[in-house]
Amino acid sequence: MFLLAITPPGNKSATRKEKKEVREREIQRERARQKKCVLGARNLGLRLDPPPLAPAKLIAIAGVTFFSLALIVAGEASPSPDKGDYTLLNPTPDTALRELSADRPDKTDSPFTVDAGHFQSEMDFWNFSYHKLDSEGEHFVSREYQIAPMNVKVGLLNNVDLQLELTPWQWERTKNETSGAVETHAGFGDITPRFKINLLGNDEGFFALALIPSVTVPTAQDHPGNHAVGGGLGIPYALDVPGWDIGFQHSVAFNRDGNGRAYHSEVSNSVSVGHPVIGRLSYFVEFFSNVSAERGVGWLGTVDTWLTYGISRNVRLDGGVYLGVTPSADAWHPWVGMTWRY
């Protein structure tokens, strides 16, 4: 004998309603559990969302991305003319010299080397720096003059040159506006030997790339300078865009901490853009940033602008100013200088 249990339609509707209510309660419990985890993490000082990227990091990421794309384009560029036989003792003929290119006055170095067997002097006639700093409730003002800081270069091979950066004389005065105390230092500055090795586009091509390893030797007198050996590597690159001068650079440096106890790393990025104004007169603008791993040191940013005037194929004058946009940077740094190839 079989018994059939028949559920009235109204009971089926109640069953579906109960299941729905159960699911809703489970969802609410899960949301409450997640909210509790988030609140607990915040109480512990943990970040569950990624931190925003600093401007300097964004510039670095964009630069590396662009750098990679430019390398792909450069791989398809036409080969450069053969000037590999020219050396320091077998100079490049004047008729085969590249267009004058300098690592000044901007902070973005040029990827192009001095032609083999030729010399080039790049110098400020003078420059001035003005800096204000508030530290531990005290206000400091610093002024610095430099006379004839220069970079002297010689072309060793078609794609390699040797450089020596030095400052014959500098004067620095720092005043504590709070206490009235004044410190003054003057003398010869540090020297920095550098090599520039061009890897791509020295004579032809849309894209040019170089490496610039350097070492700073602590030769400064009367306290100005780092008082320790430092070093770094610069990676400048440029685009050949008709009518424009466009350059980029990424660099890393290792310098002694301000307290002299250890070393720290610094990463800098820059972009420089220039365009002729009239005749041999050109106008440039640059953005530069430097981020230091040293404790308590903020990132440094400047907007730089200047004019250049070509006297001849081998001589060029320039003048401009660096303008600080962060507290760590000099408020302003004007200069007048020149580049001379011989």
Summarize the structure.
The chain has helices at 9-43, 55-74; strands at 119-135, 138-147, 150-157, 160-166, 169-176, 182-187, 191-200, 207-216, 230-239, 245-256, 263-278, 281-292, 300-310, 315-324, 332-341. By secondary structure, the chain is of the alpha+beta class. The chain is 16% helix and 46% strand.
Features:
342 residues; alpha+beta; Porin; 2 domains; 2 helices; globular
Furnish the topology, listing elements before pairings.
Blueprint: H1 9-43, H2 55-74, E1 119-135, E2 138-147, E3 150-157, E4 160-166, E5 169-176, E6 182-187, E7 191-200, E8 207-216, E9 230-239, E10 245-256, E11 263-278, E12 281-292, E13 300-310, E14 315-324, E15 332-341
Antiparallel strand pairs: 1-2, 1-3, 1-15, 2-5, 3-4, 4-7, 5-6, 7-8, 8-9, 9-10, 10-11, 11-12, 12-13, 13-14, 14-15
- Count of the separate structural domains: 2
What top-tier CATH class of the largest domain fits best? Mainly Beta
Helix content: 10-25%
Proportion of residues in β-strands: over 45%
Q: Sketch the topology as an H/E string, one letter per element.
A: HHEEEEEEEEEEEEEEE
With strands numbered from the N-terminus, the spatial order across the biggest sheet is 1-3-4-7-8-9-10-11-12-13-14-15
List unreliable stretches of 5+ residues: 1-14, 34-53, 74-78
The total of helices stands at: 2
Tell me which CATH architecture of the largest domain applies here.
Answer: Beta Barrel
CATH fold title of the largest domain: Porin
Shape: globular
Number of strands: 15
Describe the protein in words:
By secondary structure, the protein is α+β, with helices and mostly antiparallel strands. It folds into 2 domains: 20-51; 59-341, Porin, CATH 2.40.160.40. Helices cover 16% and strands 46% of the residues. The chain is built from 2 helices and 15 strands. It has helices at 9-43, 55-74, and strands spanning 119-135, 138-147, 150-157, 160-166, 169-176, 182-187, 191-200, 207-216, 230-239, 245-256, 263-278, 281-292, 300-310, 315-324, 332-341. It has a 12-stranded antiparallel β-barrel with strand order 1-3-4-7-8-9-10-11-12-13-14-15. The protein is globular, with a radius of gyration of 30 Å.
